[in-house]
Amino acid sequence: MTTLAILTAAGSGSRLGRDLPKALVELDGFPLVLHAARRLAASGVVDSIVVTAPDGLVGVMADLMAGDPHVGIPVRVTDGGPTRQASVAAGLALARPEDDVVLVHDAARPLVPPELVQRVVSAVRSGHGAVVPGLPVTDTVKQVRPDGDAELVTGTPDRSMLRAVQTPQGFARDLLVRAHHTGAERAAAEHLAATDDAGLVEALGEPVHIVPGDAAAFKITTERDLWLASLVLQETTA
Ligand code: C5P
Question: Which of 41, 84, 96, 238 is deepest in the core (most CB within 10 A)?
Answer without folding.
Answer: 41
